[in-house]
Write a structure and sequence with these properties.
Layout: H1 19-45, H2 48-55, H3 59-66, H4 69-76, H5 94-108, H6 110-119, H7 123-144, H8 151-171, H9 175-179, H10 182-198
Helix pairs in contact: 1-2, 1-4, 1-6, 2-3, 3-4, 5-10, 6-7, 7-8, 8-10
């Protein structure tokens, strides 16, 4: 005996499953757990097993999606600084705009904090930071620096201020740095970054 015929126009194929959606949720859970574990334990001590436990999945799933710890780290700390186009700004405003932009990012993005913690103690993290510096901060400096030969040095000095602020405020959490209002930080740091990027060679 056969079942009731399907109505005209009905598809005989099974309903689509939610597997792609579950896959995306699994990836997201892994990345969240990895960022927290890398930030807490550092790159060397963080393990695939611990990250999988934090994400409530089997370690084999982490390997399936990301291959190994290096691949997972690269995915977990993928950072787009979304730096503003400073070429269209009045030259005297560049320092303040950059400091305010970085403050806004640090306040809301735990990935940057995790990357800074790992980068300070591990070669893989340091190389990641160097890549961000090379690919994202150098082009900004190139737009405003008066001497093309000094672009790398001026960008590095700018990074020293921005990363130093992040280290003291978000990682070490030195109380006076934490207590500063963002506009106070812009007022203090903006002129320094401005000088590094646009002032004549000392």
């Amino acid at each position: 005996m056969t079942g009731t015929p399907a109505p005209p126009g009905a598809s005989s194929s099974p309903a689509p499953t939610s597997r792609p959606r579950r896959s995306e949720a699994t990836r997201d859970a892994i990345l969240v757990a990895a960022r927290e574990r890398f930030a807490t334990d550092g790159y060397e001590r963080a393990t695939i097993r611990a990250i999988a436990k934090d994400a409530s999945i089997d370690p084999s799933m982490v390997m399936r999606y990301y291959g190994n710890k290096e691949g997972l780290f690269a995915a977990a700390v993928a950072v787009d600084l979304r730096l503003p186009d400073v070429g269209g700004l009045p030259p005297q405003d560049v320092g303040a705009v950059l400091v305010r932009h970085f403050l806004d990012m640090w306040e809301d993005d735990e990935v940057l904090t995790a990357l800074l913690r790992v980068g300070a103690t591990n070669q893989a993290g340091a190389e990641r930071m160097q890549g961000i510096f090379r690919d994202q901060l150098l082009p900004v400096a190139r737009q405003v620096c008066p001497d093309p030969e000094q672009i790398p040095v001026r960008a590095a000095l700018t990074a020293s201020q921005l990363l130093g602020l992040a280290l003291t405020r978000y990682v070490l959490r030195i109380p006076p740095a934490v207590a500063l209002h963002p506009e106070e930080i812009v007022a203090w740091l903006g002129p320094t970054v401005q000088r590094y990027l646009t002032a004549p060679n000392p």
